[in-house]
């Protein structure tokens, strides 16, 4: 009986070795599970792997560039000593040029053949939009949302400028899908996740698959891997909060035009509803914002919300001009 261990039996311990393992045709489900465990050991593992993957993708672009191929010295079977010295010098020059390109890389990435101008998409207040991307991925843009989309050989990139999106990402191992919002980025290979800009940061919710959320402020960088049905936020300074569990009906409600609240502050409910209407709700007293509210509401049906707040929480609504509706305690 053959007892020779498989070459992939021992799991890697470094980001570079894990990258090689995952790219191997012998990689299987066990390897992927072990890789997930390795990522979970330390945030540094997440950062190291993201960097190794980025360098691998950039190197692939460099190898495919015809200008660099022209710089490669042609092989020769018989050369003089002087010729060999010149070849060695050229090899060092080639290695230095490649190293410089990998480390800098910007001149290649900004070349007209590898860079496309971002395309901008937006939705009006109260409207949503489904967007089909060239690679088979889809985006759902929520009310009052603005994004920029650009596709490059090494990356599919979406910039969230305002609002909220849900991304259903088509798998492409050679081109990660990255969403940037504020000072952070969300990196995925094939998954379903949501990104929402807040007044003081960004919220990220993962529905399926795996994403890496990273932020960078000055010399400091942090990263956390989210698991399905987890959510986290990061602030304008790049500070990542710990992931928290979310419920499917709550996470997916806005994609169906509904807003679900479970013992949440009235101030937060009003802020969310105001995103869907030009008629803005305001509170007569800030203390009212601490009232806890539960319920499922149609995002576009403000009258139904006002009726529910009157019947369930004793709040009356009155128009005060300039497209504002004031909520106050119902007078007995």
Structural write-up:
The protein contains 9 helices and 19 strands. The chain is α+β, with helices and mostly antiparallel strands and 332 residues long. 22% of the residues are buried.
Proportion of residues in β-strands: 25-35%
Strand arrangement across the biggest beta sheet: 1-4-5-7-8-11-12
CA(first)-CA(last) distance: 88 Å
The biggest beta sheet is recorded as:
7 strands, mixed
Low-confidence stretches: 1-8, 76-115
State the helical fraction.
Answer: 25-40%
Q: Gyration radius, to the nearest Å?
A: 26 Å
How many DSSP-defined strands?
Answer: 19
Query: What is the ordering of alpha helices and beta strands?
Result: HHHHHHEEEEEEEEEEEEEEHEHEEHEE
Please tell me what the overall shape is. elongated
Write down the overall mean pLDDT: 80
Short structural summary:
Helix content is 31%, strand content 33%. By secondary structure, it is of the alpha+beta class.
Key terms for this structure?
19 strands, seven-stranded antiparallel beta sheet, seven-stranded mixed beta sheet, alpha+beta, elongated
Q: What layout of secondary structure does this protein have?
A:
Blueprint: H1 15-23, H2 29-41, H3 43-64, H4 66-71, H5 81-103, H6 106-109, E1 119-122, E2 129-132, E3 138-141, E4 146-152, E5 155-162, E6 164-168, E7 177-181, E8 184-188, E9 192-198, E10 201-208, E11 211-217, E12 220-226, E13 230-235, E14 244-245, H7 248-252, E15 258-265, H8 266-274, E16 280-283, E17 292-298, H9 302-313, E18 315-321, E19 324-329
Parallel strand pairs: 5-7, 16-19
Antiparallel strand pairs: 1-4, 2-3, 3-6, 4-5, 6-9, 7-8, 8-11, 9-10, 10-13, 11-12, 13-14, 15-17, 18-19
């Amino acid at each position: 009986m053959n007892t020779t261990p498989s070459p992939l039996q021992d799991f890697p311990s470094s980001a570079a070795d894990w990258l090689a393992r995952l790219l191997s045709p012998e990689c299987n489900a066990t390897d992927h599970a072990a890789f997930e465990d390795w990522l979970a050991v330390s945030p540094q593992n997440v950062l190291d792997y993201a960097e190794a993957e980025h360098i691998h993708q950039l190197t692939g672009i460099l190898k495919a560039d015809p200008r660099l191929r022209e710089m490669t010295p042609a092989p020769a079977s018989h050369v003089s000593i002087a010729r060999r010295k010149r070849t060695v010098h050229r090899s060092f020059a080639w290695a230095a040029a490649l190293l410089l390109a990998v480390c800098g890389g910007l001149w290649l990435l900004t070349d007209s053949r590898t860079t496309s101008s971002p395309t901008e998409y937006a939705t009006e207040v109260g409207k949503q939009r489904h967007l089909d991307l060239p690679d088979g991925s889809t985006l759902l843009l929520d009310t009052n949302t603005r994004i920029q989309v650009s596709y490059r050989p090494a990356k599919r990139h979406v910039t969230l400028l305002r609002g909220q999106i849900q991304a259903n990402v088509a798998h492409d191992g050679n081109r990660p899908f990255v969403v940037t919002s504020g000072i952070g980025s969300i990196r995925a290979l094939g998954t379903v996740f949501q990104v929402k800009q807040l007044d003081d940061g960004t919220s990220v919710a993962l529905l399926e698959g795996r994403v890496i959320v990273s932020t960078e402020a000055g010399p400091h960088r942090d990263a956390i891997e989210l698991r399905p049905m987890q959510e986290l936020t990061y602030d304008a300074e790049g500070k990542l909060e710990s992931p928290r569990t979310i419920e499917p009906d709550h996470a997916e409600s806005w994609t169906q035009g509904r807003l679900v609240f479970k013992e949440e502050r009235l101030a937060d409910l009003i802020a969310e509803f105001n995103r869907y209407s030009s008629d803005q709700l305001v509170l007569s007293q800030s203390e009212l914002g601490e009232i806890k509210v539960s319920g499922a509401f149609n995002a576009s049906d403000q009258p139904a919300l006002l009726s529910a707040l009157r019947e369930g929480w004793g709040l009356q609504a009155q128009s005060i001009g300039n497209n504002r509706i004031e909520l106050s305690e119902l007078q007995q």
